[in-house]
Specification:
five-stranded parallel beta sheet; alpha/beta; about 150 residues; Rossmann fold; single chain
Length: about 150
């Protein structure tokens, strides 16, 4: 039985589609939702995520990424709650797939809904695919939402 759904999100369109799927799943199962954004370590390769005119000071970059992550999960939490579902948002720091699996265990998630690719598709091809690692490391079922055609 699905009681708690973990929904990792990076704010990409595909992650939004996964969140919508998870909200429908929660409506049908009576599950609660946890929206998770993992802020990975700051590197120059990801500086493009910042809004134009942002400082390249690493502390400022991290602060802006943390604020953006909070905004992402808060927006999804409100969306789920407007659908009458219990939901909360979480932001963690670290390696995305490791953090997703740790949060799933710690929060006793009974299911994970994740998009097949996010904003960092190019980095994932080089560094290892987060979704692939979650699928193969999870102790609970994982539903992968594919990229729309």
């Amino acid at each position: 039985m699905i009681k708690k759904i973990l929904v990792p999100t990076d704010g990409s369109e595909l992650a939004e589609n996964a969140a919508d799927f998870a909200i429908d799943m929660a409506k049908n199962s009576g599950a609660s939702l946890i929206f998770l954004n993992v802020v990975d370590e700051v590197s120059p390769a990801f500086a493009y995520e910042l809004e134009s005119g942002a400082s390249l000071d690493m502390t400022e970059i991290q602060r802006q990424r943390d604020l953006a992550a909070q905004d992402i999960v808060e927006r999804l939490r409100k969306h789920a709650e407007s659908a009458g579902l219990p939901a909360r948002g979480m932001v963690t720091n670290g390696h995305p797939s490791e953090q997703i699996l740790e949060v799933a265990d710690r929060e006793n998630a009974s299911h994970i809904v994740i998009g097949s690719h996010g904003r960092r598709a190019l980095a994932a091809a080089v560094l290892g695919n987060v979704t692939f690692n979650v699928i193969h490391g999870s102790k609970v079922p994982v539903t992968v939402i594919p990229r729309p055609k």
